[in-house]
Amino acid sequence: MNARGGSGGTAESGAARTTTTGRAGRRPGGPDTRGEILRAARGSFADKGFTATSIRAIAREAAVDAALVHHYFESKDELFIEAMAIPVDPRQIAARIIDGPRDELGRRIATAFLGVWESAEGQQRMKAIFRSVVSSDEVARIMREGITQMIIQPVSKVLDVPDAHLRVTLVATQLIGLAMARYLVELEPVASVDLATLIDRLGPVLQLHLTG
């Protein structure tokens, strides 16, 4: 008797089709899978914020397996950095700031922050981020949560004082104001002063917030 069923396929071929198809609702990687994941991530970060967004939620939105998200992006931090088009990895900035004598923290922060803005590409992308933050409450919330977790919290731990978070946040306000004045408003003479002079003047002010 013929082993084929009424549909004309063997049990083995049916199993093969099941294996190839995979789980319902999940599609394999395609030419634009990475782009779809980034679009899903931007939507999730906008709707839920950085903290409440998970890799699994992004995978569901993009209709892919969470493992595929990890194939393209090592972590949620990395996905956030690329989705928000941040020109430098904030985790690397935090690592450079932390690595060194405590009494030179202010200078290292000034050097790292201004270094991002001084390149043509970095300045273009940072200007876009700043303008988005000012014009959109959602973008402001996303950036606030991400930068707090990846930079402000690690630097606060180094200070090891009760009001460390306040101190580091005050430093952030100085940097945001400086960036607005130098790169967006182009307020003179701050806009044209050379980088070395600016770091020499700014470093001690930031250090006062941190350890003064």
TrEMBL record:
Q: Locate the compositionally biased regions of type Low complexity.
A: 12-23
Query: Gene3D superfamilies from the entry?
Result: Homeodomain-like, Tetracycline Repressor, domain 2
- TM annotation in the entry: none
Can you name one GO molecular function term for this protein? Answer: DNA-binding transcription factor activity
Q: Where is this region: Disordered?
A: 1-35
Q: Which superkingdom, per the lineage?
A: Bacteria
Q: Which UniProt keywords apply?
A: DNA-binding
Note the DNA-binding span(s) on this chain: 54-73
**A Pfam entry, by short name:** TetR_C_16
* Skewed-composition ranges (Gly residues): 1-11
For this protein, the record's InterPro entries field holds: Homeodomain-like_sf, HTH-type_TetR-like_transc_reg, HTH_TetR, Tet_transcr_reg_TetR-rel_C_sf, TetR_C_16
Q: Which SUPFAM superfamilies match?
A: Homeodomain-like, Tetracyclin repressor-like, C-terminal domain
The reply to whether 4Fe-4S figures as a keyword in the UniProt entry is: no
Q: Which PANTHER family match?
A: HTH-TYPE TRANSCRIPTIONAL REGULATOR RUTR, TRANSCRIPTIONAL REGULATORY PROTEIN
- What this protein is called in its record is TetR/AcrR family transcriptional regulator
Q: What is the organism field in this record?
A: Kribbella capetownensis
